[in-house]
Amino acid sequence: MTTAQDWQRKPLGEVADLCLGKMLDQNKNKGDLFPYLANVNVRWGEFSLDGLRTMRFESKEKERYGLKFGDIVMCEGGEPGRCAIWKDQVPGMMIQKALHRIRPSAVLDYRFVYYNLLSIGQSKGFDQFFTGATIKHLPLEKLAKVEVTIPPLPVQRRIAGILSAYDELIENSQRRIRLLEDMARALYREWFVHFRFPGHDSVPRLPSALGDIPQGWEVKKLGDIAEEMRRNVPKGELDEPQPYVGLEHIPRRSLPLDAWETTTDLGSNKLEFKKGEVLFGKIRPYFHKVSVAPFDGLCSADTIVIRARRPEHYAVVVSCVSSDEFVAHATATSNGSKMPRANWSVLKDYPVIIPPSALGERFAGVVQSSILQMQTLVFQIQNLRRTRDLLLPRLLSGQVALDSSINSTHDAA
């Protein structure tokens, strides 16, 4: 039986097939259209697959730039080293030049390689390989030199199985969040766009500024039911640590906030937000960064903090400003070409349809319950990640006996 002292360390280029994605050129590329992943689609441990683009790839390029189950996709720039395991989520997926494809050899378990890379990223072990003074990159020749730990394959599989148990629980919670979000969005469209609410058959339609709407409903401006909260916090030292949410922390097209940091030092002016308020990313609004705050904290001044004026309008405000239609309006009315910014002085005039109070309360009950469940699941995910990340370096270094680790993992699950 081998011990941790017997485990090997080898450069990634010796034990995996590495490939940088294809340079995309609409005018030069030939072949059939395939979806491809860009840097923005890769997060740590998962992929954001909304709004995938397509590009032409020739048959001879499919093997080189195409993904197979178990490939690890890594960012070359942006946040170099950020990676996730591809599990055939979308057939025929390709990669563009901003991404590396890592295909482990037969001596490696692909999950174990990913956890190696995750551990390296968490300890800033990629930093020594970065190039570029302002924008960091991890070139292919540098990635090939990154060393990974290689115990015997059965040990790799046992360690990967332990850590994967946590990630499977995380993925299950993330699926539940997506389901709750889809249900809330579908309900909003059914009731507020198509007007197929309970009892709609017996409610006549009357003309309005937005066309025919159900009797008893009314059209208002967003500014009538919501307000921008500008609680300025000047740069400098804070008396106590505060949760901070930058634009980079707000996920795309997802209401529950799933990332933040804690700070005592503000390098620039920030805004204060309260639990339940909406954080709307005003820079490049087409990124669709809109989330509900799960706690009190501070956020970037490039965020519009939105609060419902009255509790009964809360669900309508959240559903409206997180809808695709509102984000498209914010994008179309934003100022600036290179760095477009949405402006509340314009957005507050957006028309909103308000239902009668009884129907509004019914809608609010469903939406508020969904938001609460989503936020609870986010905190559960955070706890699972913390536990996994505590185990990660200890398992990879052989400090934790595998039998005891398996028992503790089963208990956690």
CATH class bucket of the largest domain? Alpha Beta
Helix share, percent: 25-40%
CATH topology of the largest domain: Adenine-n6-DNA-methyltransferase TaqI, Chain A, domain 2
Number of alpha- plus pi-helical segments = 11
Mean pLDDT: 92
The structure class reads: alpha+beta
| Count of the domains | 3
Molecular shape: globular
Largest sheet report = 5 strands, mixed
Description:
Helices cover 35% and strands 24% of the residues. It has 413 residues and is of the alpha+beta class. The chain folds into three domains: 4-151, DNA methylase specificity domains (Adenine-n6-DNA-methyltransferase TaqI, Chain A, domain 2); 153-200 and 363-413, no CATH class; 218-354, Adenine-n6-DNA-methyltransferase TaqI, Chain A, domain 2 (Alpha-Beta Complex). The chain is globular.
